[in-house]
Write a structure and sequence with these properties.
The chain is elongated. 44% of the residues are buried. Helix 2 crosses helix 4, helix 3 packs across helix 4 and helix 6 runs parallel beside helix 7. It has 2 domains: 142 residues, Rossmann fold, CATH 3.40.50; 157 residues, Rossmann fold (3-Layer(aba) Sandwich), CATH 3.40.50.2000. The model has no long low-confidence stretch (mean pLDDT 93). By secondary structure, the protein is α/β, with parallel strands linked by helices. The protein contains 13 helices and 12 strands.
Length: 319
């Protein structure tokens, strides 16, 4: 059995999307390979390298390519590298050039790559288990945003929305995520102190977060950049509608015709959507129907088969 080294910039302690992806991929590939999960390639005699993130895994990519130029190197672009790093960072750009195959996590992403790289690009939607939606209280609408406090997630949009909706006691906003940026943590605390409709819950275990997603009337995803946010899929596969910023990473998951978009940073637009979600029951029903139509893309069997095909193809067909 061949050895496969999976390099991820985030191990279990990070409890973020990269780690969730790495853990899931390692489990599925273990049926066909001896899988090692590391934060940096350590010079092992691996038949294939699968690395997450072009910039953060750049040293591992370069080292493996130098040591084993005849062995397949698969690089997954997971978010900030796709929409920022590969355009400005030389190490990230070198990772793209060295990779035999590129993996992106939503259907709009190949179009964001230079044309000469699109031919070695595969789309692999991430996945999550599906659960039926829970009954929701009619007394209020509870919105939930999930994401560690960092600028890429645009928590400022949520805070400005909470201030706009202070007059609506029937619209409650919960926010899950650790304060990776202390200044943003202070801003979250300030918003909670000023706005009775907003609660910052801090970082929570994944199981607790999934429970809150299922209990919420709607998930808010206000990000500036995403490679394919796992939390969006988790909401869709639990029957929770999503209100999302209109960025490629969200449109590539939810589809171009999805009815729950607001423009990036548009707190007035998000506030209007939340008020409509509360006041017009047909709106949430329509978004749930659109989500059900996309949910088959996010089933574990679909992701597992796609990932195995990509790795097997890299082993069988040198670039």
């Amino acid at each position: 059995m061949n050895s496969l080294c999976l390099v991820t910039p985030a191990l279990s302690g990070a409890n973020n999307g990269n780690w969730q992806t790495a853990r899931r991929w390692a489990r599925w590939l273990a049926a066909d390979y001896r899988v090692r999960v590391v934060s940096e390639w350590d010079g092992g005699d691996d038949a294939v390298l699968l690395a997450l993130h072009a910039r953060r895994s750049a040293a591992s990519v370069a080292a493996f390519a130098a040591a084993h130029p005849d062995r397949p190197l698969v690089l997954a672009l997971t978010g900030t590298d796709l929409y920022r790093d590969i355009h400005v960072d030389a190490a990230a750009q070198r990772s793209l050039a060295l990779a035999w195959r590129l993996v992106v996590l939503h259907e709009a992403a190949p179009g964001d790559l230079p044309p000469e790289l699109q031919t070695k690009c595969d789309v692999c939607f991430q996945s999550t288990n599906s659960l039926p939606p829970l009954p929701k209280t009619p007394r209020h609408l509870r919105a939930l945003m999930v994401g560690h406090l960092r600028d890429e997630k645009s928590p400022q949009t949520l805070w400005a929305t909470a201030r706009r909706l202070q007059h609506r006691a029937d619209i409650l906003i919960d926010h899950v995520g650790g304060a990776l940026d202390p200044a943003l943590g202070a801003a979250a605390e300030s918003c909670a102190a000023r706005c009775g409709n907003y609660r910052w819950l801090g970082g929570l275990p994944h199981a607790d977060t999934l429970r809150r997603i299922r209990q919420a009337h709607v998930l808010v995803h206000a990000s500036r950049m995403e490679g394919g946010a796992h939390v969006v899929m988790e909401a869709i596969c639990r029957g929770t509608p999503v209100l999302a910023s209109r960025i490629p990473g969200n449109v590539g998951l939810l589809g171009a015709g999805y009815g729950g978009y607001f423009e990036l940073g548009d707190d007035a637009g998000l506030a209007a959507l939340l008020e409509r979600a509360r006041d017009d029951p047909a709106m949430l029903a329509g978004l749930m129907a659109q989500g059900r139509a996309r949910a088959p893309l996010f089933q574990p069997g679909h992701e597992r088969a796609t990932l195995r095909r990509i790795v097997e193809g890299a082993l069988e067909s040198p670039p």
